[in-house]
Amino acid sequence: MTAQTMEELVSLCKRRGFLFQSNDIYGGIKGLYDYGPMGVEFKNNLKQAWWKSMVYERDDTEGLDASILSSPVVLKHSGHEDTFTDPLVDCRACKSRWRADQLFENNKCPNCKSEDLTEPRPFNLMFKTAIGPVDDGSSFAYLRPETCQQIFTNFKNILDSTSRTVPFGIAQMGKAFRNEITPRNFIFRVREFEQMELEFFVKPGTDDEWHEYWINKRIEWWINQGIKKENLKKIEVEKNELAHYSKRTVDINYVFPHGEEELEGVANRTDFDLGSHTKNQNDFKITSEVMKNSSSTTKLAVQDLEEKKWYIPYVIEPSAGVDRGVLALLNEAYREENVDRDNKRILLSLKPHLSPIKAAVIPLKKNNEELVNLSKEIKSNLQKLGLGRVVLENSGNIGKNYRRHDEIGTPICLTVDFETLEDKSVTVRDRDTMKQERVSIENLSEYYKKYFN
Ligand code: ATP
To answer: How do the domains of the chain map onto residue ranges?
Structure first.
């Protein structure tokens, strides 16, 4: 079971501290959200799982964390200044603005139903900001609209500082910004978001095969995070809808509460980007047409040792949205269950490695010194295992604690009662089955670790 509506998720997220509307106390800003105490843990866990699979568990990738402010020259050569646009229409009647390709009824304003709309015109989605103390328009930067351009501009730095040879990849996670015309559907379409991107460099001619490899690998990864296979769809992007850099793109769509839409895109960007940022392109047989007059002084190419010539690698890019991942996984994990005839519970049946809190230690009696001290010791020992956040709940209300931890997806709650002082065991309650068992403190670490295998 998933959530029935987006409202159920929005409400849970606010109630339990996953997500808040940004600048809320001043009325909020559309398309911006803040991650609260549970949200930040959950989001970090998701990013960590991605980093583990993309960097630590592979032998052919490196990581990067580049700056967000980007030179206009980079985004000129990447094609973003000219082509990173959405078609904008204005409603002359109610003055609202819409993305022309997202009008539900053709040529009708979704707000007032007027048909008095302007012709679509290209609207660039990049945010601009001044650099330096004088804001005279001559010195500015863009907030990056995707994380990958700095991967391309650092290509040579990374080659020179490591011993990588093609095929290899560079992974990066971080913020991206797009001035979306109509941000909507909670954190699905926002103006400030995070991406997890891998640029995987391959020899031209092997690109189609690597593309298939990454499409399958990424679907498998999302399934391992807890998304049901049947809720993921592989969608071939139509030729006329491909981004300016792409030879072929396959979107991995997810059935969100508001409908099926893109969770991740896996694109074959060819030699477009490295080629665009390379001087003396005439040295290479570059397939993309737009790349001319690069002012970069660098040759972003590698040497083919067998054929003894330089070439610009092709790149396969799996590009996932962190926030869309958060939304999809919250939706997948959401359950509403009858506990008995009169009581219901909501729970997030998250995979333990993603849960914001890994375990809650609850002394049966609030402020009882013996119970609280022992609970603190247990908490501290579990925390030292380094598997994520463990909390102490000193409120004395076991039922309320169980409900809260069900809703935030804590895999286990451990109750320390008066018997614990005698038999050195605690009651462990499992989130999904609600089954309780006594586990000796001595065996707790092993018991706890098993949840993460
Ligand atoms: P869409 O067609 O939905 O606008 P896109 O094709 O422009 O998305 P990409 O440029 O492929 O998106 O970006 C890669 C990933 O970044 C997307 O799959 C998505 O998960 C995420 N992403 C893109 N735009 C947004 C946004 N405005 N809000 C949240 N996540 C986004």
So the answer is: 6-73+148-329, 357-452
pLDDT at 138: 75
CATH code for the structural domain at 6-73+148-329: 3.30.930.10
Cα distances from 128 to residues 176, 223, 434, in angstroms, run 13, 37, 52
Residue 288's pLDDT is what? 47
Quote the ligand 1 centre to 88 CA distance (angstroms): 17
Residue with tokens 């080629």: 275
pLDDT of residue 396: 87
Q: Tell me whether residue 84 is exposed, middle or buried, using C-beta atoms within 10 angstroms of its C-beta: 0 to 12, 13 to 18, 19 or more.
A: buried
Q: What is the pLDDT of residue 282?
A: 59
Instruction: Indicate whether residue 180 lines ligand 1 (CB < 6 A).
Output: yes
Can you tell me the distance from the alpha carbon of 281 to that of 295, in angstroms, rounded to the nearest whole number? Answer: 11
DSSP 8-state code for residue 100: G
Q: Determine whether the shortest distance from the Cβ of 178 to ligand 1 is under 6 A.
A: yes
Mean pLDDT by runs of 10 across the 453 residues of the chain is: 90 98 94 98 98 98 97 90 90 90 81 90 93 82 96 95 95 97 95 98 97 98 98 97 94 97 98 84 52 58 85 96 98 94 93 98 95 97 97 94 97 97 97 97 96 87
Cβ-based neighbour number of residue 183 at 10 Å: 20
**Ligand 1 in reach of 189 Cβ (< 6 A):** yes
Instruction: Return the closest-CA partner of residue 398 out of 425, 377, 426.
Output: 426
Question: What is the edge-to-edge ordering of all strands in the sheet holding 61-63?
Answer: 61-63, 168-177, 192-202, 314-321, 259-270, 248-256, 232-236
CATH architecture of 357-452: 3-Layer(aba) Sandwich (3.40)
Which residue of 33, 242, 319, 329 sits with most ligand 1 atoms within 8 Å of its CB, as the best mutation to test the pocket? 319
Q: Is the pTM of this model over 0.90?
A: yes
Question: Measured from the CB, is residue 194 less than 6 Å from ligand 1?
Answer: no
Q: How far is the CA of 244 from the centre of ligand 1 (A)?
A: 15
**Residue 263 CB–ligand 1 contact under 6 Å:** yes
Question: Ligand 1 centroid to 445 CA: how many Å?
Answer: 41
265 lines ligand 1 (CB under 6 A): yes
How many Å lie between the centroid of ligand 1 and the Cα of residue 321? 6
